[in-house]
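User: I'm new to structure prediction. If I give you an amino acid sequence, what do you actually give back? Let's try with this one:
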Amino acid sequence: MSKFNLADRVVGYFSPKAGLERLYNRTLINKYQAALPANPHTKKRNPRSTSKANQLNKDAKSLRQRARHMDENTPLVTAILDEFCANVVGPNGIMIEPQPLDNDGNVHTEFARQINEWFELFSLKQNIDGELSRAETEWLACRTWLRDGEVFARYYMGHHSDITYPSGTPFGVQPFEPDYVPLNISEPERGVYEGIRRNKLGQIVSVLIQRDALGFEFSEVEARFVAHLKFTRRFHQNRGVTLLHSVLDLISDVEDYDQSERISAQIASRFAYFIKRDSSGDANDDFDRGGDIFLGMGNSFELAPGEDAGVVESNRREAMSSPFRDSQMRLAASGSGVNCSSVTRHYTGSYSAQRQELIDSFARYRILQRKFVTSWTRPQYRHALEMAILSGQLKVPKDVNSDSLLNAIYQAPVMPWIDPAKEMIGIEKGTRLGLQSLSHFQRERNFNPVSVRREIKAERKAMNDDAIVSVADPAHNIVAKIQHGADGNKPAGQSKNREAKNAEDE
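Assistant: Good question. You get back a string of structure tokens that encode the predicted 3D arrangement of the chain. For your 506 residues, that looks like this:
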């Protein structure tokens, strides 16, 4: 802290207030103004976060309940969560392409085909209750994860007399919301914090899962049988926090503003009429207006002498309401990381502007996709495949490398096309130059390359058997260019080469 120097003491001797101001101003020079308790210009207090890295998240429950309320009652939040789910997991879930290798390091296509056929059937009833498929479970899990901040799932594997699996594979997933893992149970002496038990290194040992509806009975399940997908902003965060934590107040203000606008519009759409009487006339006239006065198209009514009729209407004009609301919604979309145009269904700008917006938003989507695949889809696929092999549903060939049995490619939804023609030209040039393979682009469109090749092969064979010539088969185009010229005859160069060859033979 700065001290009084000689000049301060001299000034303070004659004016103590001026001496203190000199000391205070010199202190500001030596410090960041943003680090001061208050702004030195406006005297407004600078709020600071008091949370610690390993502090229990006591506000997670209230934020979660508030986000759920907005999801149920606020269209903007519903649209944001739907847009996230559509771009993180997609309508068909995360696409998984098995990649087992043989002893030479190449993909064992036959065993990969067997795994793919088994997994398609298993995905129809992956959930232990048999009601939801894998795609539906991943959609709801992603929505719960982003809205509540976390989602849990319990793994059931192996044969047991009390468990009936919906599929032939002895593996099932039981997803559940974070309410079933208590936030209010913490026993530091046992390493239990907010329903999760950890060892001294911070590794999860077990999870307390609620068994009854009242929350008095719990089961402590080992961590290897539980999936915990959480959204965090800091290290050592024990439980997740909703993705909307920083925009809840903003969305609430936008909702209040919309409500005010709707009420104002309703008031403005109504009007009342009045009859103005001349004060100098006789107020007790016996003029009969014929009962009630009805307002409508072309209606008229008669007034007594000295009376005048008028309408009470709203003169409210708010030309800036729409731009202000759009700017606030863009701010809310930016804070949550979603594509604003897709949420509001308001598309403006050129092709380059819309594509840049997609690129910016999909950078966030890819981060969420990787987290979802790593913590949710990948371990479930590997557990299910292991149980399918152990139960005898899949027979591993002898020439398959055992270390690569669980290898797979996980493909999440990719950035949609704005102009398909331009995108297809880019794909064609990329494959011709060898920048990326055709299978890579097929995976980006959520197509299984093996299934696509099998389908194309069967289609072309059937068309050739039926003597159908289609431009969809490049072989027809290549043969036409080689054998025939523009006029239907053989190319001149080809005829000359053949004539020269015949002359040499003679």
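You can read the tokens as a compact description of the fold. Here is one thing that stands out. The longest strand covers residues 150-157.
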